Structures
1.
Amino acid sequence: MKIACVTSHDATTPDGYGVRTYYMTQALKDQCESMEYIGPFSVPKIHSLLFKTKTRFYNKFSKRRYSYNRDQLLLKEYARQISKKLSGINVDIVFSPVSFASQPIAYLESNLPIVIWTDATFAAALDFYPTLNSNDICKETIRDSIANERNALSRCSLVIYSSEWAAQTALENYQIHPSKVRVVPFGANIHCNRELNDIKTIVELRPSNKCKLLFLGADWYRKGGDIAVQVTKTLNEAGLDTELTVVGCDPLITDEPLPSFVRFLGYISKSTKEGSDKMDKLLSESHFLILPTRADCTPNVIPEANSFGIPCITTNIGGIPTMVRDSVNGKTFSKDVNIEEYCKYIFNLFSDYTQYKKLALSAFNEYQTRLNWSVNTQAVKKLMSELIY
C-alpha cells in the first residue's frame, strides 16, 4: 500500500504539535510499502494580508477571536496544493491524521480513497475546551469550522476516531453513515523496548511506604493540577506519605507558598537525551499518573505512563474512558467527584500493595496490547486495505 500523508504541519519531526503525528506516521510507514508526505503548505501573500485584516477587525470591533487556519478560503487553497502534489505521485490512498485546526483535505476532490484518523470533532470540542469557548470565538470561525469538518467527513471513505466518545459526536453532529466510522486508540509518543520483566523490576523498586504521584500537563487548571495538589495534601493528612511531582506547567498556587510535598520541575524536553533520561527516571519511580482533567480527548500521557507500568488516575470525560479501563490500567472518576474518593482509591491500594503491583503490571499489558502505535497502525492498515483491495 502506498500512502499520501497530508498534514498542515510538519509530521516528519517529533517537535511541538507534530509529535503525535510523527510517531503515528512513523509506525504506519513501517506497515506499508511507501509514504509520501504532503504538507505543510504555503499561504499566498494576498490570503495572508486578508487574514491579518480580519484578525485586526475582529479584535477591534467584536473582541472575539478569528482563526485564519479555520477559514474556508485557506482550506480551499490547501486542497489546490494537495491536488497538485497528488498529480505527481503514485499512491493508493490519502491519509489525513489529526491536524491543527481544520482538516486540510476538507475541500479536496480526488478519486482516491480518503481516510482521517483523529481524536475529536470541532462540534464536540466547542465549549468543552476553555480555548474553544463560543463566547470568545467569532461566528465566522465557528461557521467555517463546522462547514470544513462536514466537508471533510463527507469526502472520506473511512473516518477513524481514537475514542468511542469522538466517534459518537461525529455521528450525532454530522449525520455521517456509521458504516464508515471506526474506533482505534492512539499510542504512546515514545520509543519503548521495555518488556514484562523490565516492568516487574521497575515496579519492585518503587517504595511501598511512600506514594509518588506524577502530574504531566501544559495547562495547570484544565488538567486538574489544583485537584492533584488537594489529593496529595489529603493523603498526607490521612497518614500516607505522598509526594506530587509536577512537569510541564507552572503550579498556579497563589494564596500560599508551594507546599513541601510538591516538586515542580518545569518543562522537560524529551527531544534531548538528557530530558528523555530524566523523564524515564521520573516515570520509573512514580506510582500513579494523576490527571484529574476537566477537558481532554485522548491524552498521550496515559499510554506513555502505562508503558512504564504506571496506572492512571483520571476523569471519565471525553475520550478517556476508551483509554483507561477501571481496575485494568487505572481508575476514572466523575469530574465533580469528592477529593476523598481519589484518596480512598490510592490509600486502599497502598494498604494492599500486592494489588497495586498487579495493577501496575496490568497497565503495562494495556500498553503492549492496546495502547501502542505499532499495534494500532496495524489495525488502521487493515481497515485501509479493505478500501483498495
Note: The chain has 14 helices and twelve strands.
2.
Amino acid sequence: MRYLVLGLVLGAAAACSRSPDDGNATSGEIQPVVGARTAVVTTRHFEAQVAAIGTVTQRPGHFAALSSPVPTRVARVFVTLGQAVKAGDPLVEFEQQRFDAELQSANVAVDNAQATYDRASRLADEGVGPRKDVELAAAALAQAKATAVTARRDQELSTLRAPLDGVVTVMNAVLGQSTDPTQVLVEVTDPHALDVMLSCTGAQAVAVRGGQSVALFTGQSGTGQQVGTGRVASVGVELDSATSTVPVRVAVTTSTRPLRVGETVMGRIVTGARVNAVGVPVEALVPDGEGYHVFVVDSAGIAHARTVTVGIRGDAYAEVLSGLEPGETVVTHGAYGVTDSARIVRSHP
C-alpha cells in the first residue's frame, strides 16, 4: 500500500510538470489579448497632400525696389521701416544741385543744337551750305534731346516716391550717405499681395498643378497654427541643382494674421481627393515587409491577420484600397501585440 501511494504521487507530479507543448496538452487553446481596442471599418473622404517648407515673398508687380538714378548723396529721409505709404508719397530726397545743373546744361545743349540745325538747314535750302551739314546737325540735335530727357528723368527721380500703396519693407538710406544706382535704398511692398515660394522635391512636384488649394501653417513641421490659404500659381520647370528642389509659387488668398516677407511657413497642397473610400485608423496598420496587414475580428472575437493595400495616408486615418470591407471590425490600439487567431478582449480608452 505504501508503494502504491508513492507511485500515485509521483505520477501526479509528472503530469503537473508536463509542458503545454507535450502531446497530451490540449491543442488549439486561444490566449486572450487583454487591453486591445477595436474600430469598425467605415467609408471616409480622403485628400492626397504634398507638404513642403516655403518662404513668404513679394508677388511680382506688387513691390518696388528703388535706388538713386546717379551717384549722389542722401539729403532727406521721409519714412521709416514698416511705415505705410501711399502711391506718390516722398521716401528719400537726394542733393539737388547736381540734378539742377545737369538739367540746365542739357536744356542749353538742346537750344544750341537746335540753332545749329536751323542754320544748316537754311544754308542748304539757299544752296550755300552742303546737305551733309544738315544731317550732322540733325544727329547732334537728336543726341542733345536724348540727354535732356535723361536729365529730366534724373531730376524727377532726385526724390524717390512710392510707386504703389504699401509698406516700407527695406530702408537702407542714411542721411548724408553716398549712393550709386546699384544700391537698393528703399523697398515698398503691397502687404495684401504676397506669395509663398515652396520647395518641393522632384517627386512631389509631379503631383502639383496650377490652381490646387494650399493650407499654410506656421513653422516647419506642419503641426503649427494655420495662418492662411492659397492656390498654386506656378510650378517651376527646372530642378535646383543645389537643393534638388522645384520652386512652387503659391498665391496667398486669405490669412488669419499679417504675413511677413521672409517668414518661414509650411504648405500643404491638396493634390487629389477620394469620396466614400474605405478607411481605418492608422494605428490599425501593422508593417509587413513592404506592405501592411490588419487584424480583423470575427463575430466570435477571434483576430485574423489580413493583408491590405494602403492608398492615401493621413494623420489619423488611412485609405485601404483592397483587403477590407465597410462594417468589418479591426484591432487598433494594441495591434502590434496581437497574433493570428488570438481571442480579443476589448478594452476602453
Note: Residues 1-27 have pLDDT under 50 and may be disordered.
